[in-house]
Amino acid sequence: MTDGSLAPARLLVFRVGSLACATEVDQVREILPRLPTTRIPGAPPVVAGLVNVRGTLVTVVEGWRALGLPPPPSAPPSSPEAAPGSTIILEVGNSGGENGSHRLIGFTVDEVLDMVAGGDNVLEDGQGLPGVDPTLVRAVGRRNAEVFIVLDVAALLGPILTS
After folding, report:
1. Judging by beta carbons within 10 Å of its beta carbon (0-12, 13-18, 19+), is residue 154 exposed, middle or buried?
2. Residue range 18-34: average pLDDT?
3. 91: domain CATH number?
């Protein structure tokens, strides 16, 4: 993806804090309003908790914490009411593995912005972005005049899933 071409890929662009991010649409199962979570005792702070999505328990990760961003001005309190924003349900794992194992995980975002075709954007190598861990970035793209980063979802959520 760092060769400047994403011809077949479509990207979902969203905002976490002031950072515009994207992930491949193929990894997105659905987008839901931000759901109230049930806290998991002993879970790291990056894990907001569990939600029930039509009978399936899904671990939800706080987007701003996972990306190492400062807390939003209205950081969700520990209350049963849902905070503003959305929860993107992602399929994480290797779908080409022996048993096709994958896992659903929720990722909280402040706002879903757009869906763009990868071929419509010139993507560049994500190295050297200030304030963003380069190991989490697959590429950098542009949507209108706005720059966004294409996240490496496996690198971002993999360590959380194994903890």
Report:
1. middle
2. 93
3. 2.40.50.180
> Can you point out the beta strands (E) in 2-128?
10-16, 19-24, 28-33, 47-53, 56-61, 86-92, 103-109, 111-117
Which range marks the domain in which residue 28 is found?
10-162
Residue 5 placed within a domain: no
The model's pTM is: 0.81
Rounded to whole angstroms, how far apart are CA atoms 66 and 33?
19
Q: Which tens digit of pLDDT belongs to each residue from 27-81?
A: 999 999 998 999 999 999 999 999 999 999 999 999 999 998 888 776 555 544 5
- Residues sharing a CB contact under 8 Å with residue 38, sequence separation 6 or more, in sequence order: 49, 50, 51
User: Do the strands 28-33 and 10-16 form a parallel or antiparallel pair, or are they unpaired?
Assistant: unpaired
Three-state secondary structure call for residue 136: helix
